[in-house]
Design goal:
Number of strands: 30
Oligomer: single chain
Helix content: 25-40%
Largest sheet: 9 strands, mixed
Number of helices: 39
Strand content: 5-15%
Length: 1133
Amino acid sequence: MGTTFLDKFISAGCIVLPEKLRPKLQVEDTDKWFHLRSTPSDDNAEDLNFLQSHPQHSLITSITGLSKVTIDCCRLLASGWIYLTYNHSRGVVRVYVLPDDLDNGSIPRVSSNLRRDRHSLLSQLDYSAAAWNGAPTGFFIPTSSHPPVFDTPASNLTRPQPTLLGMFNRIPPPDPRPEQVEDVDVYDAMCCLLDSDVPGLTTTLYPYQRRSAALMLQRETRSQPVLDPRLVKVVDQCGKPWYYDAVTGASYREPRYYDRPRGGILAEEMGSGKTLICLSLILATKHIPTRTPEIFHREAHPFRPKVGSLMDMVAACITDHSIPWKHLFGSDASSGLEYANCSAAIRRNPGSYHIPPPTGPRSARQRGAVDTSTRRIFHSNTSLILVPLNLLQQWKQEIAKHTVGLRVIVWSSSEKQPLPSLGEILGSDIVLLSTTQFENLRKSGKAVGALNLLKQVHFKRCIVDEGHTLGGATNFNRRNMQLIIDELQITAKWIATGTPSKGLYGLDAAANTAGETRDQSLEKMDLERIGSLATFYLKMRPWANHSSEVGDTPAQWAQYVTSRWPDLISTEDNCLKTTFDSVIIRHPLSELKNILPVVDKKIVFLEGSYQDRLTLNLFSMMIIFNAVQSERTDQDYFFHPRQRKALLELVGNLRQASFFGGSFFSPAQIIKSIETAEEFLGEGKVQVSADDRTLLGKAVKFGKLALGNSIKDCANLFRELPVYVQDFPFGAGREWSLDNKDGDPVCTAPGIILELQKFLQPLLDAPTALQMMFENGRLAQRGQEERTKLIEAQTPATSTPNKVLAGNTELGQDSSSPVKRRATILGKNVHVKQVASAPMTETIGTEIAAPLARTRLISTASAKLSYLIDQVVKYQEQEQIIIFYENDNVAYYLAGVLEILQVQHLIYARGLSPQRRADYVATFNQSSKFRVLLMDITQAAFGLDMKSASRIYFINPVLNPQVEAQAIGRARRISQQKPVTVETLVLRDSVEEVIVQRRNEMTQAEQRKCKSILDDKPIYEWILNAKILPLPGGDGQPINGPDQMARLQEPQFLFGRGSGREIGHPDEDILRADGAVAPRTMDIPIYHGVNGNRKRRTPSARSTPVPEIANGVPPPKKKARVGFVGVEDEGKT
């Protein structure tokens, strides 16, 4: 048995035996390498160095005794899976492994027991060169489950393990290689993309966008082989490479490859133009049709029932072989000439192929009878785009803005609109659907026709915008969207999202994640989502392999990746890195820094007004009352585990109170709590520490002080935010005030001021009529009526009593009607107009009557509100502003003041219909009238484009930086023309200061664990140990009403500029999103819905459209052959 015999084996590693376990040999030279017989027939005359049977048996017994698990080395040796040699004097056993890709015909490899034994043996070998050469440093304790990685730099061995976030941010940037593409048409399209010279694209691409789009095209068309991600390239003792599967123990001398998936994840940064990248890809390839998959190729040509014309036969040959033709003599011909007869012949003979009926068991979720017929699939140039419902209009606008000549079909959620024909779909470039409507194709029986129509088309690609939502799929739980996509024929599948999973986002190159405390459970959740996308949507092999497939083995992502994290990253080319590099396309944030606008972020700390601190102290008072009287253990204790829901409500109200909380805690509630506390102290039934007694005494003292505060009483009575107005008309402010007092300034509310503006609006320039109205008492009478009406309108929020815990303490429920306030901010019953309304009737130069000209708003009860008013008034002329809020009441209070100051604004709140949301975005971006957008922070996580705004305010600090980054990303976009200013408002001495401090200290893992601020221990303890804050002017000292407020830096006049104008709501005159801009040069109309009668708008002219010039570069010149086709949508919000 010579050297040539061992050449086919892998020189894997060694087993080092202690001297007491070495077998006794009856030979003189013990420094030789003895061979172990696989079978008795191995006794070859050419090799005399075989161990005798008894020493060999003892040696294998010793090896088994060293193993952590039982390994049947005899069986491995006898089956020919391994080969062993032994040096007695050195106590070293060399292990040679037969690769799985050799001698399969003579040595079967199907035994699961032998595979398990081999895996156990390989995981316990000493792979050091010293041991192999007979000089072990001592008894070996395995520390690694795999051999040394091939060609690994020494620096990598000592480099700290990166986090999953670090791996994501080190994905190599796109590097497209057109020279590797064999298809001439694809090569030309890639060159057009890299040169940003794509016909029909009216916007010049940035270099990084060109690279990303070109690489997307390369991955769609070229099946580049990649190493099986289960395998690690390692090195044997002779320096030769081999490939090892650390999970199963499989060993190969030669690598195994899989084709890279056609498609992937476009994970460019938020605001970097992912939509534009996708549109440029579609434009560059719209003339290239799909091809018949290899498994469905037919040998014989189709049979014609009668002899066709030469033109028809040539046309059929073109379509059957998927030869691009539209750019040569179709409607998109670069020559400008259209050969109508040739085009008609090609369309009469569409390319197609047939697929056999499905085999195997029927799916449990499959509705109706199983289709056992052969399906005919038609080739197309069409891309299927699925987007969230609230982004549907935005995609239509982006298509109109950046492209000309695209044929687009839009399916909305309307069921009154038609279903396009198969020919119209085959002739389109884009079929655009909302994900909601797409999923309904499987839910609704009425949509069977639409689904069957889509199943007849072979789509060029499918792009799912914000497709990270598909990451929760499993073998037994998949969304309808994925099930439908699986039924369709699609060449390439893409997901467009800046964050493929919650913990994966763009990171500054200077940030260091290696040393950060990692939370493996959170990283594993991210891994599961990435694995789900790769397995169930992208169908990446081997993760998508099925056990029924012949010649391949299934691979579980959880087994190879998730369960081995983070030890998996100890190898440079691990299966996770291979998967990341194969499916994700993104540029590091450092390459986009000079393209994305500069963001100036700062924290603005505000000293709370007297009323702010009064409200915060009331919450502290209730927490103290509850803590002491419940002895901090009872179930009535706010912080008892069973009161988690109540505590969350309390904390939510506390956060709202940092803006305004005057309507929390009525005088009756405060009196009841104080009396209970005094009774508790007087009875002395429960022993209380001196500290708690002092704490309770301070809380009681403060409660009595709060009871005497007239502004607080007014805020609670009217459920309105108090403000002060100076120079009230004719000094007649008593009837229009909250406190029913004479004097100047007047304590009133925005709602009362608004009614005053409406009442006096016809008389703005009529001083005589105003004087008569004052003298005859009509002004006072109307004020009293409005005041009474406002009191009567305040009804309890619920019919059930408020929750009361120990010490008769309540959670601070705001008893104002949330239904009424929510209806206000949602703008119910507001008419949405196609065009802006007529301008204000007031003309420039109109003189305001003297009694009204001096009336000014001078202060509010909220320090944050006063600051925001100053900021909005200061910047609204030059910049548009987004203000993020967390609570509907905050939006209500803020909108009320903006309205009386005639600041046009929109409220993007939860509960708005998708159409109305799109209308608001279109209006804010395109209308100069609306200067401020109030947006619920929970609605800022999708791909909304609010590039017209350059100034952002957060009313409350956001604990999770990713939520904040998503919100800022609405304005931080490459199309932004100004630097972006971001300010976060923080009330001093409140829990918000702790939130800001903790956000800077928390690791990524800690941030992701916090579902609410109560999940962070320091914040929790701050609330737990709430203190009574000193009030401005000193506790117990009398302070007049105006001094209890937060003054405006610049008092604001209340009459003029259209004050009191009769409007239904600040949201009037908004633009329809689908009417603001219309896609241009459509060869077929845009459709909506799946039922009803089709509606077309006949082109009124065939004039050449004037394309816009983007970034100073005019679009390609093309001869116009069709007129405009508008968008006709009669739906109303």
